[in-house]
Write a structure and sequence with these properties.
CATH architecture of one domain: 3-Layer(aba) Sandwich
Helix content: 25-40%
Low-confidence stretches: 1-29
Number of strands: 30
Strand content: 15-25%
CATH class of one domain: Alpha Beta
CATH topology of one domain: Rossmann fold
Radius of gyration: 27 Å
Shape: globular
């Protein structure tokens, strides 16, 4: 029996010990037929592409050399056709695993031995934990379950997750899928989750992840403009320092196996036909070791709806020549052969695309003639108690306490013996897991969770989230009058609560004899200024979409079994923000009457700021040691092209970055309250206001660390500041520069100034 123990850490506190029994106990389970290179097949077992001792590139080229043009073309689409004469089965590339194995794509199906999979909190909620080890561990558990389902013949090995678009606009309905508004946070989440999914081997893949949707994609349908026709007009500055940052981190830091191009155009060109974005940037500059796939029917969209080319054959050629390797949809299967016959495309262009996709399949072990090192995983490894406990722990860490007047929370099971649980989301199941979800193992609703601590009085208050009438308000008010405390659960469809929800909250708060706790279930920001400013609403909790165990996690926090430590990964704007900001305007920086986007550039009023979140205890920061106050930056050589005296800066590409010493910052975190708790240390950098035009940044997060501190104790967190990586900014031409002058580091209420000057 081979077993593996893993510990999930926050700082160096063990949160949960994960014990995985990777033992050969499933030999009697039914396994899928081998995809290729079955050793029992005498026709193929001697072929070079089946020889596992040969380098992958040799095997790939051998296989491609055996395929006819028609066979090659049928491998360019997501439902790739079988090649029976070579013993290769058909394969569905499209599976999803945004926060658990999902059946949204056709590659995975639930039923039989696999009725469900662990459904973790939606990404926006997990991101609020700011815990990189948690993000990676979730990915590792999801890939265990994905491999188990693959072995059982009901899922694939290529998962088109995560979504690493930034949450640019609070109205975007799919913002819940993202890790929030900060490109550094999104990039670190992406790299962590991808490493968890794919494993840490340099060449082998456990499953193949995919970072999507590249790039500047965050509009579905607004004021008659949809994602299929939208032309995102983006400056090189915003592309370099915002939109592309997470994708670069995916490739550089996560070594992701795939990137998905999006439906929209960027500056007049479809992303899936843009050679500069695909071939030159993803594969050229970033050195992607994997394949590029289209969002589903994107090639069809830019031909039939955007009318980018005159013929479908030209569209097929444009996408493949730009660097697209795989089409989610049938378009390339239908029109690629015609493109070759018309001379628009060569067979070698197709070979290059297949080299990238088949290499990933080889790295997954699909041509090894066996199910590989994960063959032992089966139904017993899905929805395990340990996996489900991790889903609960993720919800604990992601839920954010936004208001707690008079320390109303936590409630006491002895003093608050009866709790009114009110609202249309108070007893929901599927709502808690958000979109791109699968079938959960089991659910604990908020009502069920609270019932474990107290007697409950339940009223929906509204007939649904839209809350079109107030007919149920009377019963809700009556329940609130009878209870020792009242918990209201809400959802939203805009920045304001929809329908009569605000009236329900106000009336119930007025009627309640005990503290009122407003629990918000939403995938994005809400303007709840009315509740924030209402003294009758004692506490506000944002739960996001907390996953299958969300109700238990909410109750644990309300009753103090868990001390909340989540922080908002996005700015909560007032309603008047969206009134004056079109979703179609992609500019990040403030200009004139335009207020800018995200905490980095927005200069207006907020309901709650990025990074905000309360605890049942209190924390203070201090600098444990005196950090350096001066840093010299040396270019390769001093000339006007490298050191720009008018902007007083040095291009990062021309700096001797590898010779610069990293500057350690030691932050002492003290827990001055009565509860043990976790705290996120944020380090922001504010650049000097020198001659770089169009900078416009307020501050930028450069690092964050999660730390657990017991009551009355202190912990020291070290953050190493790298001048090239952390103090650089992007100029109006999209070039990253290090400004000379005083850089201010913000750490909580601490500020530390670093003078950066050229070493001439």
């Amino acid at each position: 029996m081979s077993c593996n123990n893993r510990e999930l850490l926050i700082g160096n506190k063990v949160v949960v010990t994960l014990v995985f029994l990777l033992c050969l106990v499933h030999s009697s389970e039914s396994l899928r037929p081998l995809f290729a290179c079955d050793p029992a097949n005498e026709l193929t077992r001697t072929l070079r592409f089946c020889q596992v001792n040969l380098p992958v590139r040799v095997r790939v080229q051998d296989l491609i050399g055996r395929l006819t043009l028609q066979e090659k073309i049928r491998l360019l689409v997501n439902n790739a056709a079988a090649v029976p004469r070579l013993g290769i089965g058909g394969y569905e590339w499209w599976s999803e695993a945004l926060h658990g194995v999902s059946d949204v794509g056709p590659g995975a199906k639930f039923g039989g031995a696999f009725p469900g999979a662990t459904s973790f909190p939606q990404v926006i909620t997990t991101a609020a934990s700011f815990n990189q080890s948690l993000w990676e561990e979730i990915g590792r558990v999801v890939s265990d379950e994905a491999r188990a389902m693959y072995n059982g013949g009901v899922a694939g090995l290529t998962y088109w997750s995560p979504n690493v678009n930034i949450l640019r606009d609070p109205r975007w309905g799919r913002g819940q899928e993202t890790p929030g508004e900060d490109p550094v946070v999104v990039g670190k989440y992406a790299a962590s989750y991808v490493r968890g999914l794919q494993g840490n081997g340099p060449s082998r893949l456990k499953v193949a992840a995919c970072c999507k949707h590249y790039t500047a994609y965050d509009l579905d349908n607004w004021n008659g403009v949809d994602r299929f026709h939208f032309n995102a007009k983006v400056t090189q500055q915003d592309l370099e320092d915002t939109y592309n940052v997470p994708f670069r981190a995916c490739v550089y830091d996560g070594n992701v196996a795939s990137v998905m191009c999006s439906y929209n155009q960027v500056n007049g060109k479809p992303t899936c036909a843009d050679e500069n974005l695909l071939k030159n940037t993803i594969r050229g500059q970033w050195q992607l070791n994997g394949y590029i796939v289209s969002d589903c029917d994107s090639v069809d969209v830019f031909f039939n709806q955007q009318h980018y080319t005159a013929t479908p054959e030209e569209a097929a050629a444009a996408s493949i020549k730009a660097g697209l390797d795989l089409d989610c949809g049938p378009f390339l299967a239908i029109f690629t052969e015609g493109a070759v016959k018309q001379g628009l495309l060569t067979e070698n262009d197709i070979n290059l695309a297949l080299t990238n996709t088949i290499t990933v399949q080889m790295r997954l072990g699909m041509f090894d003639g066996n199910l590989g090192p994960y063959a032992n995983l089966g139904p017993r490894d899905v929805c395990t108690p340990i996996h489900q406990h991790l889903a609960l722990e993720a919800a604990h860490q992601g839920i954010v306490l936004l208001k707690n007047d008079g320390r109303s929370l936590p409630l006491s099971p002895t003093r608050h013996r009866t709790v009114a649980v009110i609202g249309p989301n108070s007893d929901v199941t599927e709502t808690m897991i958000g979109n791109y979800a699968g079938k959960a193992c089991a659910y604990t609703t908020p009502l069920q969770g609270i019932s474990r601590y107290a007697r409950t009085l339940h009223q929906a208050g509204c007939s649904g989230v839209a809350c079109a009438g107030n007919q149920g308000f009377g019963a809700a008010e009556m329940a609130a009058r009878e209870a020792d405390a009242t918990v209201l659960t809400r959802d939203r469809t805009g920045l304001l609560l929809p329908g009569y929800q605000q009236d329900l909250v106000t009336r119930v708060a007025q009627a309640s004899k005990g503290p009122v706790v407003l629990v918000l279930m939403s995938g994005g920001p809400i303007d709840v200024s009315f509740a924030k400013n209402n003294p009758r609403v004692a506490a506000i909790i944002w739960a996001g979409y907390p996953g299958q165990a969300g109700g238990a996690a909410i109750a644990d926090i309300i009753f103090g079994a868990v001390n909340p430590g989540g922080k908002l990964p996005m700015t909560w704007y007032p309603q008047d923000y969206v009134v004056k900001v079109p979703m179609t305007l992609m500019a990040m920086r403030a200009s004139g009457d335009y207020p800018g986007r995200t905490y980095r550039f927005y200069k207006g009023r907020v309901v709650f700021p990025f990074g905000f979140g309360l605890s049942y205890t209190t924390f203070t920061h201090s600098l444990a040691q005196n950090p350096l106050a001066q840093l010299s930056v040396s270019p390769y050589k001093l000339n006007s092209a490298i050191f720009n005296s008018s902007s007083n800066s040095i291009k990062v590409s021309h700096a001797n970055c590898e010779t610069f010493p990293k500057m350690p910052i030691h932050v002492e975190v003290s827990n001055t309250g009565e509860f043990d708790g976790t705290h996120t240390v944020f380090v922001f950098a504010e650049p000097p206001r020198n001659g770089i035009k169009g900078l416009g940044v307020n501050k930028q997060l450069i690092a964050f660390e999660k730390v657990h501190v017991t009551a009355g104790a202190k912990r020291t967190v070290q953050v190493d500041v790298d001048a090239c990586k952390h103090l650089g900014v992007v100029d109006e031409y999209g070039k990253r520069r290090i400004p000379m002058g005083e850089h201010k580091l913000h750490i909580g209420d601490l500020k530390h100034t670093i003078l950066v000057q050229p070493q001439l």
